[in-house]
């Protein structure tokens, strides 16, 4: 396999080529739980699909390569991947978590990891002074999202990972919004990269999947153990679908991003829109940092319509987008973060973070922007 492909070519060729025996272009879906060892002692590379499956392995190799990492892991959902990564921390250890993290991350920390004595504090990771102040003697890790959800807040990943390194802490990022196409956190010094591949990587709203990539062998061993022991592995069929999604990630992201750019500018001039959160605007907080660490602003825009009433009225006035708690599909997807993606976070915390009931998150799809503008005409009334 050629080693020095350009970024877009890499998406097409990151995974292993089909199978040598038949010449099949695509990696077969190995629908098997166990692998016949024929005789003992066992010498076959595969034994049992919870441990490893060739279709899953193809995806794991592809995502590792795309993130510029050595070891990839695929899970049955983004939350399975996040839970697995959080298992790197033990009872009595302390983790700093970005205060506007995904609602599901907040939920497993407060409802489960807390029960097992993993300590955590939610901090504003966009402010390194606050992060520094929050580090305790038992702090072992920092978990971050950038751009964050839904306000697109930007954390300086290189500066954060440098601080973490000085203090001997592991850094983890939920890289779902940016995807490896726009942002490669390992190159910025982050240790553990996590994806909900349900979103852009899958790209067609037809599966749930989670991915982890690391470079460090010790971390890889720990993650592999949790993956195999807990068994929240991605099925062979969904591994195949995720691989299929990966191949078009670069061109989908380019199109969605260019649509989002145009739509964001248009949204800024609408009568009903109080504010547009989009890291592509030069006056967006942290835009300069984002530009330095990512290839582009992505394709998620959040608008503030001022009240829950206005937000719901707008959402219900549309007919093209899917209305649901997801993003990253080829179709435009509209979410009401307050009641959907961030339902797991108490209302008073959401309000303090600025995740207010008037927000509407738009994951811009590959449709013609003109169609979306026409469909969003309620914003002018
Ligand atoms: C959707 C999402 C998750 C959870 O992923 P699932 O595949 O739904 O389990 C985690 N983080 C972010 C940023 C997400 O958007």
TrEMBL record:
A biological process (GO) of this protein is: transsulfuration
Q: Which Pfam families match?
A: Cys_Met_Meta_PP
* CDD domains for this protein: CGS_like
Record's keyword annotation contains Lyase:
yes
Q: Which InterPro entries match?
A: Cys/Met-Metab_PyrdxlP-dep_enz, Cys_met_metab_PP, PyrdxlP-dep_Trfase, PyrdxlP-dep_Trfase_major, PyrdxlP-dep_Trfase_small
Q: Which UniProt keywords apply?
A: Lyase, Pyridoxal phosphate
Q: Which PROSITE patterns match?
A: CYS_MET_METAB_PP
N6-(pyridoxal phosphate)lysine found at: 199
One Gene Ontology cellular component annotation? cytoplasm
Q: Which cofactor does it need?
A: pyridoxal 5'-phosphate
What would be an example GO MF term here? pyridoxal phosphate binding
**Gene3D superfamilies from the UniProt entry:** Aspartate Aminotransferase, domain 1, Type I PLP-dependent aspartate aminotransferase-like (Major domain)
SUPFAM superfamilies recorded: PLP-dependent transferases
Annotated family: Belongs to the trans-sulfuration enzymes family.
Please state what the protein is called.
Cystathionine beta-lyase
Record organism: Carboxydocella sporoproducens DSM 16521
Q: What is the lineage of its organism?
A: Bacteria, Bacillati, Bacillota, Clostridia, Eubacteriales
């Amino acid at each position: 396999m050629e080693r020095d492909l350009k970024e877009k070519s890499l998406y097409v060729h990151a995974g292993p080529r089909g199978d040598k025996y038949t010449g099949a272009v695509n990696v077969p879906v190995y629908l098997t739980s166990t692998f016949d060892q024929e005789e003992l002692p066992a010498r076959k590379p595969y034994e049992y699909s919870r441990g490893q499956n060739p279709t899953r392995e193809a995806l794991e190799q592809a995502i590792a390569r795309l993130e510029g990492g050595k070891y990839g892991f695929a899970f049955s959902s983004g939350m399975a991947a996040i839970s697995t990564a959080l298992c790197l921390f033990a009872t009595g250890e302390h983790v700093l978590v970005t205060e506007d993290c995904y609602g599901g991350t907040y939920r497993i920390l407060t409802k489960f990891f807390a029960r097992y004595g993993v300590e955590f504090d939610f901090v504003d990771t966009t402010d390194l002074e606050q992060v520094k102040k929050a580090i305790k003697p038992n702090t072992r890790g920092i978990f971050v999202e950038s751009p964050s959800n839904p306000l697109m807040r930007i954390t300086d990943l290189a500066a954060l990972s440098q601080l973490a390194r000085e203090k001997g802490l592991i850094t983890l990022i939920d890289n779902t919004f940016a995807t490896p196409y726009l942002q490669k956190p390992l190159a910025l010094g982050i240790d553990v990269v996590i994806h909900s591949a349900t979103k852009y990587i899958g790209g067609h709203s037809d599966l749930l999947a989670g991915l982890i990539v690391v470079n460090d062998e010790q971390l890889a061993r720990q993650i592999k153990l949790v993956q195999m022991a807990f068994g929240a592995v991605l099925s062979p069929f969904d591994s195949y679908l995720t691989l299929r999604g990966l191949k078009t990630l670069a061109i989908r992201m380019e199109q969605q991003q260019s649509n989002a750019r145009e739509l964001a500018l248009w949204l800024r001039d609408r009568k009903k829109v109080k504010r547009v959160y989009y890291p592509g605007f030069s006056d967006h907080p942290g835009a300069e940092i984002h530009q330095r660490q990512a290839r582009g602003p992505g394709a998620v825009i959040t608008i503030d319509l001022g009240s829950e009433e206005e937000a719901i009225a707008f959402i219900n006035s549309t007919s093209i987008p899917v209305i649901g708690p997801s993003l990253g599909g080829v179709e435009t997807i509209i979410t009401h973060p307050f009641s959907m993606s961030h339902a797991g976070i108490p209302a008073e915390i959401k309000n303090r973070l600025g995740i207010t009931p008037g927000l509407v998150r738009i994951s811009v799809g590959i449709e013609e922007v003109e169609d979306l503008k026409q469909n969003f005409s309620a914003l002018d009334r």
